[in-house]
Amino acid sequence: MSQQVDASRISELKDTVAAALEQARAAGLSHAEADASLQRGLTVTVRLGEVDTIEYHRDRGLAVTVYVGKAKGSASTADLRAEAVRETVDKAAAIARHTAADECAGLADPAALAREIPDLDLYHPWDLAPEEAVTLARECEAAGLACDARLRNSEGGTVTTHSGVRVYGNSHGFLQGYPSTSHSISCALVAQDGDDMQRDYWYTVARRAQALEDAAAIGRRAAERALRRLGARQLTTRRAPVLYAPELARGLFGHFVGAIRGSSQYRRTSFLLEAAGKPVFPDFLQIAERPHLPQGLASSPFDAEGVTTRDRELVRDGVLTGYVLGSYSARRLGLGTTGNAGGIHNLLVSASSSDCGFEQILRQMGEGLLVTELMGPGVNGVTGDYSRGASGFWVEGGAIAFPVHEVTIAGNLRDMFRGIVAVGTDIDTHGAIRTGSVLIDAMTIAGE
Question: Exposure winner among 1, 26, 246, 379, fewest CB in 10 A?
């Protein structure tokens, strides 16, 4: 049996959403919106050559929101039969009738809704049998373990394939949907030398199976990363430059997005309150949102409210140009939606002043800490205070000197953002935020 959702089922979900909207209209409700989805997938993990888990994922759901004037009610169900759809609308209506009115509640402005739905090439099903997934996972793990005798244990090689379709509609006449897929291969290995044990991982993810990196190469990269951490030392407490590897630099900009999200602004729980139009980063730093990148992991033709997604320069020459808003938060702030209900769509971080690869940034840093792993939450979104457990490598003379563990790096995100001195061209494309390595001028490193 295929583990993929057939894209043709969009028409079935459109019928379901249309039925929910018609039920709401017939009940005399002011407005309504509904979101229906089908998801299916397979995850296989092999550990030390033996099958550890085979998991099948099958999910479906319908979420309905209705409005009685400015009062809102929501309900959801995993049952898409006609009777269940009617009951879900009725439950949402009952909730709305007992909810206080909110002048900012309501559907997105009809003028903001997507009129054209571009094909972003997001759907590439991988008809992968469990036996084939096991073979790939074994190949990945075995290639890593074969790299060195010190690789004595494994947390496993994992292969995942996922597909889904989503349809959104509302009583303004919007009714659209699209299919998407994502696939991944990952491996986590444990290296041991005497009593010293170190773990690390690597992975690849893409919309198309053909775009995934080779399974054996993923295993070997995980092996290399685990082996290079053997012999890790602590540091004495000091202030020094800190270089974030690309896969961790994504998190820095994730904190930035959280701070400029509409809900953080109107609730006044952000360390970047009212920062629009002000410099947040150095003047060489640019952040662009590109929702329509073909096969992008965060690409989408419209947001969670049906609002069209558009290219946007979120940060220009270090200056924040605006916030990340859905319709509700936009109304609370007296602004217009930016098409970000449900999140961001492919943020591209770049530096306009340089073309620095990873080795160049190491030389520019000279001496400092290269961070390759972070632990613990340690971030206060209200004050911007930042304190995370970290491990990585100490850099001397512009080259990696030795591995480091059991340290804490601390600072304040506002100062850290302004203290960025370089962004590398070693772009990580594994998520919704694409960035290279990020070098910060100085942070507190707490150790022995």
Answer: 1
- 271, 276, 282, 286 alpha-carbon torsion, rounded to 10°: 120
Hey, what are 133's tokens?
A: 């997934």
Question: How far, in Å, CA of 204 to CA of 157, rounded?
Answer: 12
Share of the chain above pLDDT 70, in %: 99
Range of the domain at 109: 7-227
- Does pLDDT of 1 surpass 60? no
Do 255 and 364 lie in a common domain? yes
Which of 230, 224, 193, 218 is CA-nearest to residue 141?
A: 218
2 belongs to a structural domain: no
CB-neighbour burial class of residue 114 (10 A; exposed 0-12, middle 13-18, buried 19+) = buried
CA atoms of 419 and 320, how far apart (whole Å): 16
Residues 6+ apart with CB under 8 A from 151: 144, 145, 189, 190, 191, 223, 226, 227
Q: Is residue 190 domain-shared with residue 314, that is, in the same domain?
A: no
Residue given tokens 């759907």 in the structure block: 123
Burial class of residue 418 (count of CB atoms within 10 Å of its CB; 0-12, 13-18, 19+) = middle
DSSP label at residue 331: H
- Nearest 5°: CA angle at 215, between 209 and 218? 115
pTM: 0.94
- Same domain for 213 and 290? no
Statement to judge: residues 346 and 401 lie in one domain = yes
Alpha helices in 159-276 (DSSP H): 215-227, 246-260, 262-266
Contact 439, 416 (CB under 8 A): no
| Sign of the C-alpha dihedral computed for residues 238, 243, 247 and 253 taken in this order | positive
113 with 185, same domain: the answer is yes
Task: Quote the number of domains for the chain.
Answer: 2
Answer yes or no: do 207 and 246 share one domain: no
Q: In percent, how much of the chain has pLDDT > 90? A: 96
| 3-class DSSP assignment, residue 79 | coil
For 277-320, write each residue's pLDDT tens digit: 999 999 999 999 999 999 999 999 999 999 999 999 999 999 99
Same domain, 136 and 278: no
Do residues 148 and 16 share a domain?
A: yes
Give the residue among 423, 404, 355 at the shortest CA–CA distance from 240. 404
